[in-house]
Structure formats: C-alpha cells, structure tokens
Amino acid sequence: MAFELKNTVPWGRNLEEYSNMFNLTDSDLDCRIISFGDGPASFNSEMTENGKRVVSIDPIYEFSQKELQQKIEETKEMVLEQTKNNLENFVWTKIKNIQELEKIRISAMTKFLQDYEDGKMTGRYINHELPNKTDFEDLSFDLGLSSHFLILYSQLGLSFHISSITEMLRVAKEIRIFPILNLDAKKTDLLVNLIEYFETNYIVNIEKVDYEFQKNGNEMLIIKRK
C-alpha cells in the first residue's frame, strides 16, 4: 500500500535533543550517522551546519517542501491539544510549558524546511520506508539512530520491528533507539521480545540518557556487533 502523507503526524526535534536522547558524544557526532524516521527534525540541518555528515531516512521525504509545510500546519494544533489533554504524561522541567514546547518544535521544523530541498539534492534526505532494504552497502555507517519511531509505535508489531532493526544493523555497526516506551508511556512485551531476539548475535543494552519528556522515557536501547 502506498505511503500517504495524510496518515502522518510530522513533529521535529533538534540537535540538542538528539544529543541528549542518544547520549551522543563529540566522537559520536564525528561518526558516519544514518538516522531513520527523522521526519521534520532539524538534526540533519544543524549537523550539516557544523560540518558533520548525516543521512536521514523517512517516507515523508517523498513529498515537496510545500506539502510538508502544509501538513505541519494542519497537524500542529492537534498535537499540542493532545499534549494539553495529557499533561500528566510528560515531565515539564527542561521544557517548561506548552508554549515553550511549541516554540522549540516549530523552530526545529522551520529549520528543517529551510534545508529540505538542498538536503534532498545532496542525498541527505532520502525517501525510504522501513523495513524495506536500503540501497546502502553493508556497514556503510558507524551509527544508526531511531528517534520516536521504533518501539514507540509498538502496534506495528514484532515482525516489523525485527525486520526494520535487522536492516538498520546491516548498514550500521551500532544502533540506538529512543524512547523504549510505547505511546501510552509503558514498556511492552515488544521490548522484551526484541531484546531476546537480538541478544543471541549482538550486544544489547539499555542505557539511561539525559533526556526525559515522556514520563519515565529516559532510556534508550543499544544494539551493536559483538
């Protein structure tokens, strides 16, 4: 079935948030990085400004800048309203309130939109949908990231996650997934099953991170080669 923009909820995060979500060190930031499900994050744009190299993968990159901007405008109020209705599910420390959340997200997505067309032309934003195989050779990257996609959308099922993570591990030496809760802010059997599946052939760890907005969502999953 064709991917449709109407079914997406674009919501972008920035470089500082990525650094905190994934415990990215200066050495990590110098690595060859591929980031899956980036959506309208400004991570790629900010990294590029800093002379770093990131390839972002997402099926929304099929669409034009104008289409994505319109979709962001359409869904922004819906996302903020849902957040307002579930304030108790979030930690309001680094982000103080809804107004600050909106400011941070709009800033990140605006920076993404300004960079988008150039990034597509230079191969930094690639239209691709997991778990399909990418065009990259094995171990083309040092580090693979998944922000607010895998595990969070646990309803995609175990088979989808195994296939998607297997493809990520094919192209990257190490992958990091954040958060490891579902949309209801709970750890599910999916996480347990994924750990059991991959720990046979890989080193699998859960690591605390310096980021918590979704309540209890301050851990990431790390899978790397033995």
TrEMBL record:
GO terms for molecular function: methyltransferase activity. Keywords: Methyltransferase, Transferase. One of its GO terms (biological process) is methylation. This is SAM-dependent methyltransferase.
